[in-house]
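Our preliminary data section would be incomplete without showing what the modeling component actually yields. Below, a chain of 242 amino acids is followed by its predicted structure, encoded as tokens that our downstream tools consume directly.
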Amino acid sequence: MDIYSIGYHHSHDKEFVIDRPEGISPSWLFLLFHAECEVRIGKEMRRVPKSSVLIYTDGTPQYYRACNDYYMDDWFHFTVDPADRKLFRELDIPLNRPFPIGGAAECSEIIRAMTYEFYNSKDYHYDITLLYLQMMLFHLSRDVHAKPQTTAMKASAKYDRLVAMRWQIQHTPEMIGTVQELAEAYAMSVSSLQHSYKTLFGVNITSDLAESRVNRAKNLLSTSSLPLRKIAEQCGYHSEFH
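Predicted structure:
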């Protein structure tokens, strides 16, 4: 993929309209809408909510406009080669039709970083821009195909606590006692913790903790000469028999 122009949080008034009956060739166009707008798909006009993405392929007619007092989007024009087209097919990202995403804020932050790298002159700035683009496409695919109950939770203090908790579970399971104790340490009820953890990460917290301890044990058994008693301690088990 090659990017040749990009913009972040570009805003326009209510008269804004883009009308390209022949599209652009060989360019594709990526749009992340930050305001409600109208888009023509074929002969049909659709009202598209903010936090939606539209990716036009080369040569596809483009028509979109403001439908309220203002319009805002993130955008970039880019070209693709056969390998890139294969990647889009594998990721199964919708093309030439708008689709809503739950992670619009995260996606927009990546585009902001892409824009900064694209227009600066530091070493490897363009290579970094393309890496950001690939990362965003993987985020988009995951967002599009996520089950409704596992879509990204909005950024909040609770979200931050859960992310920190999972890091602790995966990296220091020996520091964790019971789920009850974990809930108390993070100022949450057990039921709220179990529900929120499963919603955010798509896995049961008890199973995640058990798997983390088993993985730690496997690693220590294969890479150290520690006695079983010490390995049990470092994995959060009560004894080597457990």
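The chain has a mean pLDDT of 88. DSSP finds eight helices and nine strands in the chain. Preliminary results of this kind motivate Aim 1 of the renewal.
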